[in-house]
Amino acid sequence: MTTQLSRYHGKARSIKKRVMSDRIVSDQTPGSIRLLCTDFDGTLFDHTSSPCIPMELLKHIAELQRQGCLWVVNTGREKDYLLESLTPHGNGVQPDYLATVERELHYLQRGQYEPVIAWNNHVEQVHEALFLEHRDLLNEIGEWIKSNFDAQVYADPFSPVCLIANSVNDALAIKKKVIDMIDPTGPLAWVCNDIYARFSHSAIHKGSVLAEVARRHSIAPNQIVAAGDHFNDLPMLKCQYAQHLIVPSNGMQEVIEAVSREKGFVASSPAGAGLMQGLSRLDSLGYRATQ
Fold it and tell me: Do 89 and 51 meet the contact criterion of CB atoms below 8 Å apart?
């Protein structure tokens, strides 16, 4: 997979550079924040709160964007499902990029989100080959879940086995068995978020998608903020991708521990309020968006 990504990046460098958003970010100051990457559910957005996204947070993100910082929402949701929640609650503040289903990229162009075609085609081809190679094992896993749990198991365009479990405990039990059935060092990954799960390539995840956005704009990890709360956020909550990490208080214990090991910020407030705490802390330490 490393060879495949290197091959992709080699091709990408040979393609004439295009403008990926209305802003070109060029400042290379190490102390600047040039890219903000946020998970959606449980980090930016909380459907149990009113408003679902704190107005103070939206204003802060809008100001970061005004100063030249790019914003990417990095989620397990599909694009249309994400926009169903983001658009009515975003108060007109729009991310520069949407990273959806932990693999696809879309960039904002004249008010609409357009696919990053080269990257999306690449990850689609990688997953087609992966799922074909492991077809028998994937079928076996799907049948095992159906036989042992009252859960929704189905295929969609992104994974031949997708899960909606009846409870978080069921989802965790299924996760344990699935990991036992696959090679944990191999290319298959069982990507979980709450009661939801799907298969993916182990080298294509929220971290690698974040890295692709950073590569397109020549942004270094010390200029990137990443925030997340759940299992599927763990790959991007590493200093190799972003050196300013935030987890809200509602984060999974494993996520809180991982961010703590990376010397990130663990908020005392949940979801968007916790994200705002982390951004305010960076502000107080003198980190600023690109001027």
Answer: yes
Residue 5 lies in a domain: no
Q: How far is 165 from 146, CA to CA, in rounded Å?
A: 10
Q: Which residues contact 132 (CB under 8 A, 6 or more apart)?
A: none
Residue-wise pLDDT for 61-102, tens only, equals: 999 999 999 999 999 999 999 999 999 999 999 999 999 999
Asked whether residue 82 falls in the same domain as residue 186, the answer is no
Nearest CA-CA partner of 71 in 104, 42, 107: 107
Q: How far is CA 189 from the centre of its chain?
A: 15
66 and 196 together in one domain: no
Average pLDDT over residues 113-125: 98
Q: Which of 220, 248, 221 is nearest to 233 (CA)?
A: 248
pTM: 0.88
Q: Indicate the angle between helix axes 271-284 and 55-66, nearest 10 degrees.
A: 40
